[in-house]
Amino acid sequence: MFFIHLCNILSQYKDFVYKYILHLHRQPIYADNMDIREDIIFVVNPISGTQNKESILEYIESNINRSIYNPRIIRTEYAGHAYDIAKQAVADKVSFVVAIGGDGTINEVGCALVHSDTALGIISCGSGNGLARHLHIPMDYQKAVQLINNANVRLIDYGKIAGHPFFCTCGVGFDAFVSLKFAGSKRRGLITYLENTLKESLHYEPETYEIENSEGTVKYKAFLIACGNASQYGNNAFITPQASLSDGMMDITVLEPFTVLDVPSLSFQLFTKTIDMNSRIKTMKDKKITIHRATEGVFHFDGDPMIGPKDLVVEIVPSALKVICPPKPKRSIYEPHNILQHITDFIEAKPVSSSIAEKHRQLLEMNRTLMKKLVKKNNQQQDD
Questions:
Q1: Cα–Cα distance for residue pair 167/176, rounded to 1 Å
Q2: Pick from 49, 91, 108, 39: which is nearest to 69 by CA?
Q3: Is domain 38-151 in CATH 3.40.50.10330, yes or no?
Q4: pTM reported for the whole predicted model
């Protein structure tokens, strides 16, 4: 009787059972027909950086992996447009926004993407490229596009100084002063920056600062104070060489007053990730500090100068930005014995020798040449 009753029930609901089985059978077919590609927007600043962008855009069109990405290219049209584009992308739940341009464009896009599910991609065209270099993102745009095709994403920290976000470094003192001078220069690039740096260093007077951290307050007379989320300014100039983008901490480097005789060793150590070993350097780590100075003045965030109050709060915001980058290396690729690349980037030409002595000699010679020119020019101006 039980089986007869069961058959009667099934016969009454046979249409429903048939439709449900058909639905289960068809469901995978329906999913396969969906466009499951991720939306990706390439934001390009046509006038930023040091490269022509059209060849980059052509390569993207031909080589982006369209089986996983639905790409779109948007050119910026006004100051702040990159930020607006990225912010709208977050609202539209776009998966990736790639910044094509210099450090300013990358900073704009990054600021719009913090605390969101949209990941930042980077194709560097600037003169410094600090964030890309720290993350080991290739400077070659073709390799950078292939990296984007791999779609490896990790979370990184970012920092804030006086409420302004930064991703690499911020600070006060000489580097902020030079950033202000450099911002008005028509010529860009590392050599221009170094010329400005050496020229202004002949006249710059160190200031007195107080750094208030989790352990108390320390007073310094300093040439500069650099706070690093990443390890470098850019161009592999490692001002906070032990900094990590994922430890929830910032590294602080205090450069105390020095003489002209200290310049060669400081320069050499800056580009060989060993500046923290110099006797003129004091270092500390913290999540948040306040820098006190006598008066308001200039500070910088990722090389952008701004006039700010005499008391500056600097803090790290942990794990707040998704970035497309290579997997985190097990160890640094910048070994003490392998400084060839630093010297190459420094002089913007390939050296002929890989010995440490030769690289050191090249760096010292460049310092001597630039210093002689600047001292001679300074003496002529004083005579006039």
A1: 16
A2: 39
A3: yes
A4: 0.76
